[in-house]
Predict the 3D structure of the following.
Amino acid sequence: MAGSVWDEVLDTRHAVVVRTYIERWPRKDRAPEKVLIIVVEPDEEARHRCPECGERGRPVEHDVVRWRTLDVHGKRAFLESELPRIICGEHGKITAAVPWARHDDRFSRPFEEFAAWKAAHMPWTRAAAELRITWEALAGITARVAADAAAGLDRLDGLRRIGIDEKSWGKGQDKYLIIVTDHDRGQIAWIGEGRCQSTVRAFFDALGPERRKLLTHVSADGADWIHDVVREKAPQAELCLDAFHVVKWAGERLDELRRRLASELRAAGRDDQAATLGTGMWALRKAPEKLNGNQRTALASIAADNKQLYKGYLIKEQLREAFKVKGEDGKKLLRGMIAWAHRCRIPEFAKLARTLSKHRDLIYHTLDGGPSNDPVSHCTSYC
Ligand SMILES: [Zn+2]
């Protein structure tokens, strides 16, 4: 038996792990990919249920089916199970429901939750690449989670600390979503189409007057028009900026600076140094403790050859540190960091200092106990 650890890892009620094994998938010109297969079955209670009415049906035939689930140790993982077709008294011959996935879906629920969370926090093309699924699959997942979030009002119960963000819907089309994330549970709480105050109001209407009063912190990405609605609908909630967004601003300014310096170096005929800035890109974005050997070397050469860029990096790191430390010490670090960015004579960072000064009160609220970070902590590049 694969045992109870796997049942815990799976984190899905009514699913029992039967065994696990590794399958090797051939790849062109490379070693085969190792894929983890987790063989599961519904427990006694969930077996042979009709997806429409939940009644137990009589199994007549079955296929063996796989569902993509969350990666394990960097390996793609799939749930594998017999999927019976059953005869339901009311609904006739129908594919049985499974506890780990939506009906007729080929991704597990935890995978879809994770994917939707990622889609809410980064460009979709990048989220799809990191998840190793197609852009279309990601769009389908987000639509399903959105429909679920709209239908299942229980996601709105017990909300305390939330984030409200606008997100463009895919490839530069003029379509936007408002996504409300539950910072405490690390899941999507609500999704609405549109990019205006009435969409945000629709969320507060769905929440209703009682549950609205329970909100303690609302983070938004610095969009004033969202703040206005929050002040109107949940005046007791502290408005804050989630650390993820604030650190991301610093990361973006640092990228701008790096690109400008690289093009200046190329213009001056120093292509080799410009190339170092290119390879140093990831080193600059990552947290120092997550750097690998090559990235550390790249950072060291930036420190030696390019004082401005290295200074920008240190300023960004101080900002990150402020969110780690929090409280009064965090505020002290933030003030010092803003003052440093103001006087450092780097236009990109002077701009950052102005943005941070403008939102300083909101950032203070975050440092005083608002959502400190993406609780699932999947932001790899900026945090
Ligand atoms: Zn039925």
